[in-house]
Every structure is written in C-alpha cells, then in structure tokens.
Amino acid sequence: MDRIPRTTLEQWAVLKCVVDSGSFADAAHMLSRSQSSVSYAISRLQDSLGVTIMEMQGRRAVLTDTGRGLLSEVVPLIGDLISVETRAAELSRVAAPQLRIYVDSMFPRSWLLSALDRLIATYPNAQVDIHETERSGPPEPGSYDLAICLPDPRRMEGRRICDVDMVPVARADHPLVERADPLRQSELVRHLRVIVREQGPAIGEVPLSRGRVWFVSTVESAIAAVREGPCYGWLPRVLIADDLEKGTLKQLNTETDRLRCVSLDIMFGDIDHASSPVRYFAECLLAQRQSSTDAPN
After folding, report:
1. Which of 41, 129, 247, 259 is deepest in the core (most CB within 10 A)?
2. Can you give the residue range of the structural domain that contains 142?
C-alpha cells in the first residue's frame, strides 16, 4: 500500500448522518456531538476531496450530484467497518476456544490442513494445540479434546476415519527391487528392514530371530531410512505417494498380496461436554473422508 487515504470513514459517516437527518443540528444530536464539530468534519472532508459535496437549500443541507455519487460508493464500506467492529466486540467478550488435538503421524496431512482451514474460517480466534503421535491409542482422559489414533476396543464412541495402506517398498536401486519373481519371506529376512518402534500393536513384524531390523521412533524416520539408506520397510502409501510416482521408491513384489493397513479412529476426549469448535472440527475431518480425492484407503 503506497497511499494513505486523505479522508476517513468517520468523516463519511458524519456526512451520511447529516444527509439522513437533514440538518447539521439534528446530526449533532444523533451523534452526541456539537454542531460545530459536525460542520468541521464536513468541511475537512470537502477540503480533502477538492470538490463540493454539500450545499444549503434554505435551512436544509443536501448533497450535490457529485457528493451523492461519492457517498453511494462509501456507504458499503461504512457498513463493512461497523460489522468488523461488532465482530471484534463479540470476540473480546468470548474467551478464545482451546482445542487439544492428538493426531497419528500417518493421518493424511492434506485432510488435517483442510479441516484446520475450515475451523479457522469459522472460529478465527481458536487456539489449536496439535500433538503428533506414533501408532498409539487415545491419550489419557482429560488430556485431549479430539484424537485420531488407533482404535480402542474399550471406547465404543470411536468412529473410523481412515484405513492407511501399508506397502513394502525399497529404494529404486535396492537389490530387492531388481527381482522379477515374487519375493519369499525367506529372501526378505536376508535384508535390513526398518520398523517403527511401536506404542500400539505391530503390523506384520518379523521376529528378530528371522532377520535384521532397524528400530526407529517415528514414521518419518522410517521413510528416511528407506529413502536414503539400505533398508526396506512397510510404509504408509499416503505418505510416500510422491516417491512412488517419481520412482525414487519402488513397491516390492512380495509372495503374497495380502493387504496390510492401519485403521485410525476419531474420538472425543469427553463427547458429552465437547465444545462447539471441537465438534465442528470433528465434522470437518470426517468430511474429508467423503470429499478428498487422495483417500489413503
């Protein structure tokens, strides 16, 4: 912005009040101001514009044709500013909603960010505290408002939000990729495999006695170990889609095509006392399952 307006919306609002009331005296009464301050505001407005916008017809102040045209353009801006000030006053009286969200690292980032955009558009002063988890169940009661995590059979209110496909992959130059025939388990265990150190149940893990394993603490570390190192591993398809498309990672041709997946549920920390922003955010997340084109399952 390289220019600052020479006129103010306050001056235009005073002008509108004079026009609506028909006189400077009545406008001064409506605005709880002195008549001289109203006259001064109109005078400053005309001086700044360099045109005559009002004239006296007898004792009545009326707009000139120029003034009428200019005021008609400004009136919507006055209404918009009043709406902003009203909204600000409402926000000042209401404490900013707090949302404590636990999200499994395998949950699609695009879903999460889209839901956050909708949340902030509706609750612009919401304070969101996001904790990423690694393959764990819901946190301790009272420590969260909403969680996307592994299903908990003890929690009946959990609702399935996605099933994340796990695919066996390795770098494009890995020896396992070069094999044309389906890989047997006996061949896989000869190579180094990366596994996320589980907080929840394992997915098709190979016992230590049947192969070499690198344990890492996060899914991101597992992806990096496969992408940059000598490992292969079962990784979330949704998080390595770009690598698969570019060919930097290749899906292994295993002996069985049995689908392996991680199911994730969405659940409230206290469904009976969940706030409106928390419930709305849950709705936004669930809507992503229906509308997103990059569904992981």
Report:
1. 41
2. 101-159+267-291
